[in-house]
């Protein structure tokens, strides 16, 4: 990820997508191999359905979201319901970036790893350990 420039202006959806893909490359191979079918999408905000179902007061309250069935809960007998997906929400991420001054590449990486952790069914502690290792 170090070859990505630090941002001093709001990056586009495509810029955040590139940052997320670079962050995926930092995952340990044993985890990355389990993410080959995971779809990562960058959108401006969570859609209305997500906002309602999660009881958000504001669309800025959610930086990312995992949508799917975590690996630890999947069964061979399950009927596939579409690909597992990780959403990163550009405007909320940028709002948080501006508020905190945190490095944007690190922030995107943190949100992505957290959401991928849900894909694996990890606890928050396990996700923190994963981020430290990656």
TrEMBL record:
It holds the Pfam family Zincin_1. CDD domains: MMP_ACEL2062 (cd12952). InterPro entries: Zincin_1, Zincin_1_sf. This is Acetylglutamate kinase. It comes from Pararhodospirillum photometricum DSM 122.
């Amino acid at each position: 990820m170090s070859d990505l420039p630090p941002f001093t202006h709001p990056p586009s959806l495509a810029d955040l997508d590139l940052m997320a893909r670079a962050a995926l490359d930092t995952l340990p191979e044993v985890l990355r191999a389990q993410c080959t079918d995971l779809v990562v999408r960058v959108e401006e905000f969570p859609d209305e359905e997500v906002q309602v179902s999660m009881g958000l007061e504001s669309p800025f309250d959610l930086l990312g979201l995992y949508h799917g069935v975590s690996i630890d809960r999947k069964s061979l007998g399950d009927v596939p319901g579409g690909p597992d997906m990780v959403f990163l929400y550009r405007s909320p991420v940028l709002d948080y970036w501006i508020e905190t001054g945190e490095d944007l590449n690190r922030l995107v990486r943190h949100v992505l790893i957290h959401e991928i952790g849900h894909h694996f069914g990890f606890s928050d502690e396990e996700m923190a350990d994963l981020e430290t290792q990656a």
